[in-house]
C-alpha cells in the first residue's frame, strides 16, 4: 500500500499519529505540511509514493524497541572485542616469552635428571636440602652458574689444578667476592663419577661437622657437572705424610690432633649425624687439611646410608682402594661401620709410620704392611715401625699405644674390632687397659704374589722393585 495522506501541523504530530496506528510502518512529511503514512512493507519507497507528492528528505521508519536494543548491544560487543583483542594478543605474546624463559631455566636445573641414572637426586631436592640447612645452620649452599666457576678457576687453567681422582680433576678457584673454593669437575669419561656426584649431593649436603669438608654447592650446565667445596689450603694428608720434605712438619702432637679429628668425624657419621653413614673409602688422600692443619673427611662418592636397625649391608659392586678395604668387604661385598674402622686402623698406622700401605717394602718380603706392623708390635720393636722423624719424640709410650689401637681396628674378624666410640675412648683414656690384638687380615702376601717377588739379595735385603696388586675396581 502506498503512502496515504494525513494532516498535521508538524513532524512530532506525524510521529505521534504513526505510533498510535498499529498498521503504520513509516511516515514522512510532504512539502504541503502533510503527514504521509505507509501501511505496507518497506520494499520501494520511491514507487510507493512516486509522482504524488514531493517527500522531504527524511523518512521515519517504525522499528521495534527490542531490535534497537539488540543493535546497540552488538555495536557495544564489537567495540569491546576491538579493544580487548589487541590486549589479548599482546598478553599472549608476553606469556609465551615468559614461559619459554621459565622452561629454559627448568631445563638447566633438571638436566641432571635427564642425563644421570633414575636414582639421582632432583634439583628440587637439592634446593629443599639447601633451605633446610640454611634454616638450621645458616648454610649458604647454592647452585652456581658455569660462567661463575669458569671465571673463578681462570677457565680451568692448569695453574689452578690441584689434582685428579676417579671423579675427575680438582681445581682451586676464587669467587668474585674473594671466597676461595675447590671445584671437583666430573670427567665425561668417568662412569663412577656420575654415582659419586649423586652421592655427594644426597649425603654431604645433609651433614655438617667441623671434621667433614663443607659442600658449598654444585654447578650443572649441559654435560658439565661440578661440586664446589670450601678450599683447604694445605691440600690432603698424603701430600705431607708421604713427602720426605714435609714429614717433619707433622710432629707427634700435630699427628695426634689429626688422628683424633678423623676419629671424631667418623664417630659423627656412625652415631650422631642425621643419617647413619658408612664412608667406605677412608684414606690419606681423602683427608683434607685446613689452614691450621685440622683434618676434614672428604669424598663421599662411595658412602652409603644405613637404617637405624641395619648393621651389615651387601653390595655386588665392590669399589674402593686396595690396602684400605676390610676383608669381608673385599672378599664378600659386606660392609658396615666396622669396615670404616678397618680403614681407620690402616690410616692410623700410615700416620705413625709415614709409609704408604699400598707400596710398603721391608726386609721380610713375605709380610705386607699390616703383617709387618703386627710382627713389630708383637716383638716389642715398635721403634722400627715409627716414622724416623718421630724417633726423637718423648711420646714413645703414647705412640706404642696408638699402634695397639690401630692393630685392634684391623683385626680380621669384624666382631673383634672396636666401634669408633670405643676407639675414641681408647685414644683419650691412656689409663684404660687395652686388649691384645689378634693377627690382622691380609698379614701375608699370597703365594702367587710371593713367588713373583724378587729373591733376597746376598745382604738379606730385597731389591728396590715394588710389586703392586691391582685394585678390585680402580678409582
TrEMBL record:
<dbReference type="GO" id="GO:0004674">
    <property type="term" value="F:protein serine/threonine kinase activity"/>
</dbReference>
<keyword id="KW-0732">Signal</keyword>
<keyword id="KW-0418">Kinase</keyword>
<dbReference type="Pfam" id="PF07714">
    <property type="entry name" value="PK_Tyr_Ser-Thr"/>
</dbReference>
<feature type="transmembrane region" description="Helical">
    <location>
        <begin position="77"/>
        <end position="98"/>
    </location>
</feature>
<dbReference type="GO" id="GO:0005886">
    <property type="term" value="C:plasma membrane"/>
</dbReference>
<keyword id="KW-0067">ATP-binding</keyword>
<keyword id="KW-0325">Glycoprotein</keyword>
<protein>
    <recommendedName>
        <fullName>Protein kinase domain-containing protein</fullName>
    </recommendedName>
</protein>
<keyword id="KW-0723">Serine/threonine-protein kinase</keyword>
<dbReference type="InterPro" id="IPR001245">
    <property type="entry name" value="Ser-Thr/Tyr_kinase_cat_dom"/>
</dbReference>
<feature type="domain" description="Protein kinase">
    <location>
        <begin position="156"/>
        <end position="442"/>
    </location>
</feature>
<keyword id="KW-0812">Transmembrane</keyword>
<keyword id="KW-1003">Cell membrane</keyword>
<dbReference type="Pfam" id="PF08276">
    <property type="entry name" value="PAN_2"/>
</dbReference>
<keyword id="KW-0547">Nucleotide-binding</keyword>
<dbReference type="InterPro" id="IPR000719">
    <property type="entry name" value="Prot_kinase_dom"/>
</dbReference>
<dbReference type="GO" id="GO:0005524">
    <property type="term" value="F:ATP binding"/>
</dbReference>
<keyword id="KW-0472">Membrane</keyword>
<keyword id="KW-1015">Disulfide bond</keyword>
<dbReference type="InterPro" id="IPR008271">
    <property type="entry name" value="Ser/Thr_kinase_AS"/>
</dbReference>
<keyword id="KW-0808">Transferase</keyword>
<dbReference type="InterPro" id="IPR003609">
    <property type="entry name" value="Pan_app"/>
</dbReference>
<dbReference type="InterPro" id="IPR011009">
    <property type="entry name" value="Kinase-like_dom_sf"/>
</dbReference>
<keyword id="KW-0675">Receptor</keyword>
<keyword id="KW-1133">Transmembrane helix</keyword>
Amino acid at each position: 500500500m502506498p503512502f496515504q495522506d494525513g494532516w498535521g501541523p508538524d513532524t512530532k504530530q506525524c510521529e505521534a499519529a504513526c505510533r498510535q496506528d498499529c498498521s503504520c510502518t513509516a511516515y514522512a512529511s510532504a512539502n504541503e505540511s502533510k503527514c504521509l503514512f505507509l501501511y505496507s512493507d518497506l520494499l520501494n519507497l520511491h514507487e510507493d509514493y512516486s509522482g504524488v507528492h514531493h517527500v522531504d528528505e527524511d523518512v521515519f521508519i517504525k522499528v521495534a524497541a527490542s531490535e534497537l536494543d539488540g543493535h546497540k548491544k552488538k555495536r557495544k560487543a564489537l567495540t569491546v572485542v576491538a579493544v580487548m583483542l589487541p590486549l589479548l594478543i599482546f598478553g599472549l605474546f608476553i606469556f609465551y616469552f615468559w614461559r619459554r624463559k621459565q622452561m629454559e631455566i627448568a631445563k638447566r636445573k633438571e638436566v641432571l635428571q635427564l642425563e644421570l641414572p633414575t636414582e639421582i637426586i632432583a634439583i628440587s631436592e637439592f634446593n629443599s636440602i639447601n633451605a633446610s640447612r640454611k634454616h638450621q645452620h645458616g648454610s649458604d649452599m647454592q647452585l652456581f652458574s658455569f660462567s661463575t666457576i669458569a671465571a673463578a678457576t681462570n677457565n680451568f687453567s692448569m695453574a689452578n689444578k690441584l689434582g685428579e681422582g676417579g671423579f675427575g680433576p680438582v681445581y682451586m678457584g676464587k669467587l668474585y667476592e674473594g671466597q676461595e673454593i675447590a671445584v671437583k669437575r666430573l670427567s665425561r669419561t668417568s662412569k663412577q663419577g656420575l654415582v659419586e656426584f649423586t652421592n655427594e649431593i644426597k649425603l654431604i649436603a645433609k651433614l655438617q661437622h667441623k671434621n667433614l669438608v663443607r659442600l658449598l654447592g654444585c654447578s650443572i650446565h649441559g654435560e658439565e657437572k661440578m661440586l664446589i667445596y670450601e678450599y683447604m689450603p694445605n691440600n690432603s694428608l698424603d701430600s705431607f705424610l708421604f713427602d720426605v720434605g714435609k714429614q717433619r712438619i707433622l710432629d707427634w702432637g700435630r699427628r695426634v690432633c689429626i688422628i683424633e679429628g678423623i676419629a671424631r668425624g667418623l664417630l659423627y657419621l656412625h652415631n650422631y649425624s642425621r643419617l647413619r653413614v658408612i664412608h667406605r673409602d677412608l684414606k690419606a688422600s681423602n683427608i683434607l687439611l685446613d689452614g691450621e692443619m685440622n683434618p676434614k673427611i672428604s669424598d663421599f662418592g662411595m658412602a652409603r646410608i644405613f637404617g637405624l636397625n641395619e648393621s651389615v649391608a651387601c653390595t655386588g659392586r665392590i669399589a674402593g682402594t686396595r690396602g684400605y678395604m676390610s676383608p669381608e668387604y673385599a672378599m664378600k661385598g659386606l660392609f658396615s661401620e666396622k669396615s670404616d674402622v678397618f680403614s681407620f686402623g690402616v690410616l692410623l698406622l700410615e700416620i705413625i709410620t709415614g709409609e704408604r700401605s699400598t707400596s710398603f717394602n721391608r726386609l721380610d718380603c713375605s709380610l705386607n704392611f699390616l703383617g709387618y706392623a703386627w710382627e713389630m708390635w708383637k716383638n716389642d720393636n715398635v721403634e722400627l715401625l715409627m716414622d724416623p722423624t718421630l724417633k726423637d719424640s718423648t711420646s714413645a709410650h703414647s705412640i706404642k699405644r696408638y699402634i695397639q689401637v690401630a692393630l685392634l681396628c684391623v683385626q680380621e674378624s669384624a666382631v673383634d674390632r672396636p666401634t669408633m666410640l670405643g676407639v675414641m675412648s681408647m685414644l683419650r683414656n691412656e689409663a684404660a687397659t687395652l686388649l691384645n690384638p689378634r693377627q690382622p687380615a691380609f698379614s701375608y702376601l699370597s703365594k702367587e704374589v710371593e713367588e713373583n717377588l724378587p729373591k733376597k739379595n746376598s745382604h738379606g735385603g730385597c731389591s728396590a722393585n715394588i710389586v703392586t696388586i691391582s685394585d678390585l675396581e680402580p678409582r
